TrEMBL record:
<dbReference type="Pfam" id="PF09112">
    <property type="entry name" value="N-glycanase_N"/>
</dbReference>
<keyword id="KW-1015">Disulfide bond</keyword>
<protein>
    <submittedName>
        <fullName>Peptide-N-glycosidase</fullName>
    </submittedName>
</protein>
<dbReference type="GO" id="GO:0016798">
    <property type="term" value="F:hydrolase activity, acting on glycosyl bonds"/>
</dbReference>
<keyword id="KW-0326">Glycosidase</keyword>
<dbReference type="Pfam" id="PF22252">
    <property type="entry name" value="PNGase_F-II_N"/>
</dbReference>
<dbReference type="InterPro" id="IPR015196">
    <property type="entry name" value="PngaseF_N"/>
</dbReference>
<dbReference type="InterPro" id="IPR043022">
    <property type="entry name" value="PngaseF_N_sf"/>
</dbReference>
<keyword id="KW-0378">Hydrolase</keyword>
<dbReference type="InterPro" id="IPR008977">
    <property type="entry name" value="PHM/PNGase_F_dom_sf"/>
</dbReference>
<feature type="domain" description="Peptide-N-glycosidase F N-terminal">
    <location>
        <begin position="205"/>
        <end position="384"/>
    </location>
</feature>
<dbReference type="GO" id="GO:0016715">
    <property type="term" value="F:oxidoreductase activity, acting on paired donors, with incorporation or reduction of molecular oxygen, reduced ascorbate as one donor, and incorporation of one atom of oxygen"/>
</dbReference>
<dbReference type="InterPro" id="IPR014784">
    <property type="entry name" value="Cu2_ascorb_mOase-like_C"/>
</dbReference>
<dbReference type="Pfam" id="PF09113">
    <property type="entry name" value="N-glycanase_C"/>
</dbReference>
<dbReference type="InterPro" id="IPR015197">
    <property type="entry name" value="PngaseF_C"/>
</dbReference>
Length: 554
């Protein structure tokens, strides 16, 4: 870093000696397949010893934040990067490898560009075929990006024969603008830190949990800013979500490590629906028996699992499954050619719930069913990315059902309700006509050993108002690909590990993605939904059950 700062001051001194050199301003237009793109033109200032890459909006102070600017010291072979994160905050870095980074294949081809003879060179950048046309007639060096800087003044840049930057105007200038300077030394960071800060500045991070314990420990359950329920197996936090545009994208990311529990467990990240008089949080605080009971005739109390005229179940944002002891048990078994992962990162887009998140204070929770005092440690955050996504723009949602017993240690029983033909069936009310309706459906089968529904494919049938809407068999065949997340998975005599086995729509160490079932347009009024799964019978102390959740997206 000391050497970089020294070179920085050298650049400042040399820049002051270059006042008599020829200087040019070059404007570059973006094209795609020969058509002008909507991207703002790039402006380059070039001289024999220095160049800068900027935009007119940056020069005028009208560019949105963050925005990046580049200054190139041709003599010292330094490529400066500067980003304005806001009006008052800047960061910068110096890359000393740009000039030796690329191998240029020179050709004999030439052509005129804006009245100047240009030569062609080609190179490969990250498997992209690049062609550049440059000229030495003006005795200056410059380019609209970092390629071609050692060759001369780049007048045309083409990537993969389709995307191009073409010089449309060359103007001789007396001086560079006052803003065209190397970054101030006080802003300089190492390259890795610079890139990390710049990347994170481009989206909104909403931290929820950081290394929080989810374990079964009735004696140690205490709530503060984080609410803890069900003997410590559920954690919930109130989170403020900023107001964002409707074309934004939302992702949820969970990092999980074992803190003592060696087994694969069901996990769920959920959002408390608050659109009705009674919420799931009320049941968590006051007892699950205060929530509506679903009765399918088998005598069990299925509490807080379906929508009623006064209650909404939770939105399930993400269903995940812990692996067998990742991190905590990594040293228990050493295998040749295998290096265990130190954690599992689950990341999933949940933009369909943008409307119930943006600009609100909401309760978001995480559940991992376990009976271990060490349990698991989790970190959870939302990231929100502005852009041009139409995926969730204008979409609304209604929470319908969730049979995942997130309050397993607080009064919710396992969802064995599919053992009867009725399965899950209830009527819900829609206050107004809705169009292009989809059922966001997550399903996983559990229980039993070799004959249980965890290991036996079962057809899921979804009926709306008595008619079959969709039917499929949820099944995962790729569980063996996650072996390195499962250090203490059971191993069998045939060479397989338990984590290798195919399962009913889940694997140890994975997310179970929702499917979206088209339901068409629904009229205002009452509708009946039925989920039928041929659940296997109880075998001794082993039972099968199904965790299913559903929300209407429209």
């Amino acid at each position: 870093m000391k050497n970089i700062v020294l070179l920085f001051f050298l650049a400042q001194g040399i820049l002051s000696l270059a006042l008599g050199q020829d200087k040019y301003r070059i404007t570059y237009q973006s094209f795609y397949n020969g058509q002008i793109s909507k991207q703002e033109p790039i402006v380059v200032y070039a001289s024999p010893d220095y160049s800068a890459i900027t935009k007119e909006s940056i020069l005028s102070g009208e560019q949105k934040f963050p925005h990046e600017y580049y200054f190139i010291d041709q003599q010292a072979k330094l490529f400066y990067k500067e980003t304005a994160l806001s009006k008052d905050k800047k960061i910068a870095a110096v890359d000393s490898n740009v000039f030796g980074k690329y191998v240029y294949n020179q050709t004999r081809e030439t052509k005129l560009i804006l009245g100047h003879s240009a030569r062609k060179a080609s190179l490969s950048v990250n498997s992209n075929a690049i062609e550049i046309w440059y000229t030495n007639e003006l005795n200056v060096y410059g380019a609209p990006n970092e390629t071609g800087l050692p060759l001369g003044l780049v007048l045309e840049y083409m990537r993969n024969g389709s995307s191009s930057l073409v010089a449309t105007k060359i103007e001789k200038v007396d001086t560079f603008p006052s803003s065209v300077q190397p970054p101030e030394a006080r802003y300089l960071l190492d390259e890795l830190t610079y890139r990390d800060i710049l990347w994170k500045s481009r989206f909104i991070q909403v931290p929820i949990f950081k290394d929080e314990l989810i374990s079964f420990n009735p004696e140690q359950v205490k709530s503060d800013s984080i609410l803890r329920f069900a003997e410590g197996t559920v954690i919930v936090k109130k989170v403020k979500i900023p107001e964002v545009a409707g074309n934004s994208q939302v992702f949820i990311e969970l990092i999980e490590k074992s803190n003592g529990d060696a087994y694969d467990r069901t996990g769920s990240v959920f959002l408390i629906a608050d659109d009705q008089e009674l919420t799931f949080l009320d049941g968590m605080k006051n007892g699950m028996t205060t929530l509506p009971r679903y009765d399918n005739g088998d005598g069990n109390n299925y509490l807080g699992m379906i929508r009623t005229d006064k209650f909404s179940p939770v939105y399930e944002l993400m269903r995940f499954f812990t692996p067998f002891g990742v991190s905590h048990f990594n040293d228990r078994l050493t295998l040749k050619g295998k290096t265990w992962q130190d954690s599992v990162i689950y990341r999933q887009e949940i933009s369909e719930f943008l409307k119930v998140l943006t600009g609100k204070e909401v309760y978001i929770g995480t559940y991992i069913g376990n009976y271990d005092k060490g349990g698991h440690k989790v970190s959870l955050e939302l990231t929100i990315h502005s852009g041009n996504s139409s995926y969730a723009k204008g979409k609304s949602s209604i929470a319908l059902f969730n049979t995942t017993n997130v309050m397993e240690m607080g009064g919710q029983t396992y969802a064995t309700l599919f053992g009867l033909e009725k399965g899950l069936q209830f009527t819900f009310d829609i206050p107004k006509d809705i169009e292009n309706v989809q059922l966001r459906y997550i399903t996983t089968g559990h229980g039993g050993w070799g004959n249980g529904d965890e290991f036996v494919p079962k057809v899921n049938s979804i009926y709306l108002n008595g008619r079959l809407s969709f039917q499929f068999t949820p099944w995962r065949l790729d569980c063996g690909g996650y072996r390195l997340y499962n250090p203490v998975s059971g191993n069998f005599e045939n060479g397989l590990s338990s984590s290798d086995l195919s399962r009913s729509n889940w694997c140890p160490g994975t997310v179970t993605n929702p499917i979206f079932i088209n339901l068409g347009n629904l009229k205002a009024g009452k509708h009946t939904i039925r989920i039928h799964i041929p659940q296997g019978p109880r075998e001794g102390d082993s039972m099968s059950f199904w965790n299913v959740s559903g929300a209407l997206i429209y």
